[in-house]
Amino acid sequence: MGEATLFNGVLYLKKDQGKIDEVHATRNLDDLPGSIGIGHTRWATHGAPLQVNAHPHTDCTGQLAVAHNGIIENFSELRQELEAKGHVFKSRTDTEVIPHLIEEVLKNNPSFGLADAVLEAVKRLEGSYAIVVIATREPDMIVCTRHESPLVVGVNDSAIYCASDIPAFLPVTDKAVMIEDGELVTLSLQGYEIKKIADSKVVTREPKVIDWTPEMAVKQGYPHYMIKEIHEQPATLRNTLRLQEHYLDLMSTFLDRAREVFLVACGTSYHACLASSYMFSKLAFLPTYPVIASEFVEQYGKSVNIESTILTVSQSGETADILAAVNAARQRAATVLGLTNAIGSTLTRVSRVYVGQQSGPEIGVAATKTFTSQLSVLAGLALRLAKQRGKVSQDEMDYLADRLKKLPDTVDTIIRTQEEKMKQIARKYKDAKAFFFLGRGISTATAYEGRLKLMEIAYVPAMSFPAGESKHGPISLVEPGFPVVFICPKDETHKTLVGNVMEMKARGASIIAIIEEGDEEIKRLADDYVELPKEIPEVLSPIPYIVPLQLLAYYMAVEKGYNPDTPRNLAKSVTVK
Ligand code: F6R
Questions:
Q1: Which of 314, 358, 354, 316 is nearest to 335 (CA)?
Q2: What percent helix, strand, coil does the chain show, rounded to 5?
Q3: Candidates 263, 264, 269, 451: which one to mutate for ligand 1, based on the most atoms within 8 Å of Cβ?
Q4: Are the C-beta atoms of residues 437 and 450 closer than 8 Å to each other?
């Protein structure tokens, strides 16, 4: 984290690796002079969490500082262009292009004020950002702007603030002004002024009083982190899809060359691996072995070798079972690839290549937004591999890439239209003693994950297996009223799945079906159903189809009087720091 302030025409900057308290303990942030400043705690996306990569970042002169939340997609091109013009970069971050871009605009337009320069500079940025800028040339001003990353201004009688979210300034003011995409704000002694970037027109917007309790504030108005994070998914998916293509290309090259590929993870991350094994097989014709990390050493520890590639998926990058599997694989010279949410974690240090999933911190006990982000990275990887191997036509590639890009909107629609329905279903089945979650094909992974969420958060025993297994034993548990959740996208498995639904129906089960809009056949059989938008390709279906199940687990926990954020999850505590 870091802070920059302005005082007597000088820009002061302190930043270091670590959390606020740690940095404050060693660097004493309180002695930064002045009454105007910016600060940032970084969730690493580009560049390891080191001092040099901490925000704020400065231009070549050290007279201008920027803090940024979001991802600049075209930073490599911009960096090359700016370096060719003589700009010297210090960090590995995407953010650092911003101060240099503003510096460049000011060099070419000496009459520009800071706000004009920021306005011009952000026109070059692609991606998501909320940025704040200060500079010695206008020492009484902060300029901030946003695109697809939140930004909010806070006002009281003696000061003015801007932040990514309201809790940051709620202890000092409850009056907030929401800033919208494409707006630029200047904060000064005179107050705040909002302008539209497109035409520089001034926007009048009065502050609103925020009546959140401190408890609600940290969750941004949501009652629990879990539901906040479920709702964040459209935004986190958008960020994940901004991943640097280069790393995915590199990873798919390793996968292509391997003699055997293992997909290794625990819990929710394992379910993402399981789903991706269908993606790799169906799109790239690559067989892979999904393995639960705690079993890897026993099952394959002796047989992996220099020709094996281990793709490990871990949100935290610190799960002990994953690290043990990676260690065993490395000892036998296998190639380790990592997909994680925590850049700088052990997994990123031991992987030959790693990709950051860019879903931001997950505070809720249950993995929700990190699951959908992992899936979207893995789908992108499978698509790349399919292209590299010439296994899909360009038309199909384009179609799937387009559908993947639209998924954040699809997820948004599902949350908006189906949340109430899931709440009702949770209420109806809250006293059920046990559940089945069933799917076929790739939806088996969705079913496993839906079942894990319900058990983990609402403490309801649940079983999950590929629906085709029902008749080989488990169906004997089913008696009238036993709830069975079916994941039923309209894919190649649909016809056989209808047979499985009938089978359960015949035993008197209560069928809860997650279906595609207008699936009359299943509607006729189901006791309850939720309809998801059409045109979701089979290989991408776990991303939208898990959302109603996350909501089911959440509302079931609430209905049963449990706190979905209470950490009764043992798996998450099994990490090494
Ligand atoms: C479930 C959950 C756990 C984790 C598992 C792996 O909601 O959170 O099952 O998915 O402990 O954790 P990571 O992905 O950090 O290795």
A1: 354
A2: 45, 20, 35
A3: 269
A4: yes
Which tens digit of pLDDT belongs to each residue from 356-392? 998 888 889 899 999 999 999 999 999 999 999 998 8
Radius of gyration of the chain measured on its C-alpha atoms = 25
**pLDDT at position 567, please?**
61
Q: Whose CA is nearest to atom 10 of ligand 1?
A: 268
Do the Cβ atoms of 574 and 319 come closer than 8 Å? yes
Question: What 3-state class would DSSP assign to 117?
Answer: helix
SS3 521: helix
Contact 485, 514 (CB under 8 A): yes
In this structure, what are the phi and psi dihedrals at residue 159, rounded to the nearest 5 degrees? Answer: -155, 170
Q: N- to C-terminal Cα distance for the chain?
A: 19
Rounded distance, CA 503 to CA 483, Å? Answer: 13
Region for residue 481 given its phi and psi (left: phi exceeds 0; alpha: psi -120 to 50; beta: otherwise): left
What share of the chain in percent tops pLDDT 90?
Answer: 79
CA–CA distance, 443 with 21 (Å, rounded to integer): 44
Instruction: Say if residues 575 and 324 touch (Cβ distance below 8 Å).
Output: no
Neighbouring residues of 398: CB distance < 8 A, sequence distance ≥ 6: none
Comparing C-alpha atoms, which of 453, 475, 469 is closest to residue 555? 453
For range 156-184, the mean pLDDT? 90
CA–CA gap between residue 533 and residue 541 (Å, rounded) = 11
List Cβ neighbours of 387 (8 Å cut-off, separation of 6 or more).
397
Compute the distance from residue 572 Cα to the ligand 1 centre, in Å.
6
User: Where do we find the tokens 């510096």?
Assistant: 103
Q: Return the best residue to mutate from 273, 319, 568 for the ligand 1 pocket (most ligand atoms within 8 A of CB).
A: 319
Dihedral (Cα; 510, 545, 279, 341), 10-degree rounding: -130
Interval between CA 320 and ligand 1 midpoint (Å): 11
CB atoms within 10 A of CB 120: 18
Residue matched to tokens 């920021």: 118
DSSP 574: -
Report whether 277 contacts 382 (CB < 8 A). Answer: no
Q: How confident is the model at residue 30 (pLDDT cuts 50, 70, 90)?
A: confident
Q: Which two tokens stand for residue 231?
A: 């709702």
